[in-house]
Amino acid sequence: MPIDEKPEVSDDSNDNSVSAGDGNETAAPDVESISCKEIATGIGSDAISAIGNNANTSSRKEIQSLLNTSPPEYREEAIPADLLKQMGSLLGENTLEAHEKAHKLLKDSALVAVQRWQSIHGKGASGHNFSTVSAKLVNAFAKKVLRIIKSDEPELMLELGTGFGNDAMFFARNSTTHVVGIESSLAAMQAALKYIGKRKWRDRLNIACSDFIKVLETAIGADLDMVYSHSTLHYSPSLVLREKIFPLIASVLRKKTVDTKPGKFCLAMKTAASASAKSPNQRKLLEDDPYNSSVDLHDKVFRIYPESKEALIALLEPSFDIEQAEEIPFHGYDRTGDTEIFCYIIATPKQKNA
Fold this sequence. Notes:
Number of domains: 1
CATH architecture: 3-Layer(aba) Sandwich
Structural class: alpha/beta
CATH class: Alpha Beta
Number of helices: 11
Order of helices and strands: EEHHHHHEEHEHEHEHEHEEEEHEE
Strand order of the largest sheet: 7-6-5-8-9-14-13
Radius of gyration: 19 Å
Strand content: 15-25%
Number of strands: 14
Largest sheet: 7 strands, mixed
């Protein structure tokens, strides 16, 4: 039954929250030290099995190189009007090629999701907007997914967009599942690794700084048990999601067989009913767009807001069978404390026709 979502603080006498940018930082591990071997800790003898059990030597080297990525610089200046117009024009063509060009333009213009962590969460705001690094801040979707984990007992979960690692830490702390988190923000990854330290559940959790699309491309056919993503995938244009990212996610999950259950994709994404979607800072790039493609003029970042759960399902259905879909209010997710509306999806990869 849908419930209003609030952060839950669970008891852990050994946990101390760390607010990003709190002035008490210690040296974080170099990105190069987060190796493929470390990502696969406890999974198997083949180090790469965590994110692709069909990987060869060249793909191992490729993944290692992906773990050395650096985020783009944050834009302080106003976004040029002609750039917004160009973005709208590309998205309006409504082809994958045009949406991929728009996606590249976003990256080249530093209007990408990593800046949300560096410009907002990295300032050290605490409390309901999850800018505090802690295994004790739990959202309702993570609690829902944990119930699935307890039932299905997946060996491995891949999280796309780990952020400060709060959800990943919650899963590792409360189950035997190994969690591999991919995060594009170096600052967020370092804050998470600092918090994780030597906690007793550390061996069940690995976080790496990388481009998750390239990681997914390397892991095709990996037969993963679960892929989880909360508030990350809305930073990509709708056709990039439908034609590229969602098919990639389906391709790394285990397919249903006579003897095995299919892997699960657990997705949470804001909808257009959210307070942030209605903010005067949001500049819509297209009229009559069911995904409300927008650039936040304050945060300097692009995102989509599907008009409804049906609109989001339409992006998923070419690649997934939908098991559950519901819209949930979340009070105080963002800095303003207003209500965001999330669509929660549980899906399994479609079976290919023989």
